[in-house]
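the two lines:
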Amino acid sequence: NAGVTQTPKFRVLKTGQSMTLLCAQDMNHEYMYWYRQDPGMGLRLIHYSVGEGTTAKGEVPDGYNVSRLKKQNFLLGLESAAPSQTSVYFCASSLTGLGGIYNEQFFGPGTRLTVL
Amino acid sequence: AQSVAQPEDQVNVAEGNPLTVKCTYSVSGNPYLFWYVQYPNRGLQFLLKYITGDNLVKGSYGFEAEFNKSQTSFHLKKPSALVSDSALYFCAVRVPPSGGGYNKLIFGAGTRLAVHP
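prediction for all of em together
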C-alpha cells in the first residue's frame, strides 16, 4: 500500500496564479482532510470530506476550494494565490470520523508551496 | 476556549534516559487525545490515542502516554530514548461539534525532541 500520496512535492507560484494539489489514498478511507502547517503553529484544517462527492469547510477555508469526485482522491485548489498561502500542505485520511473508533489520521508527505 | 498546549518548544535528553513530552488540554466533554510524530520532511505519523478505558495508553515505537483527567494532561513518555526518536511531536485533541458543526482536531504547536548520543 502506498498510503497517502501528494503531488507535487514542491511548487513556487507568483501572486495571482492558480494551482491544484492532488491527494490520493489507497486505504479505502471515507474521510479526507487538507491541513496547512505554518512555523510555530500546529496544523490547521482547511477543508475536509466525509465521503465521495461531499466537502465541507474547516478552520481556515478562505482562498481555497476542494473537490472529491472519486473516493480515493481529494483535490485542493488555489484560484488566486497570495503570499499568505505560503505554507506546507498536508493531506490526511481516516476510516471513520473523529467520533468513531478508527479515527486516527494517516498523513501524506506534504507539499511545500511558496507564493512570491 | 477549547485548546491544547505543549509548554515546551524543545526537549533535550540523553540516549538511554527516560523522556517526557508534555501536553495539557482544555475541552468540554470527554476528550479524545492523540499523539503524532513528524520526522524531517515527512508527514505526521500516528503514535497513540486515548478515547476511553485505561489511563495508560501504549503506542508505536515503545511510546506510551498517561491520561490524567484531574490535571487535564496527556504526557508522552518513553522509558529509554533513542537518537532515532529525535523528531517533532504533536499533541492533538478532538473538539466535539457545536451548533451543527463538526468534530475538529486541534493540534498543539509541537515539541521538538532532541536525543543526544
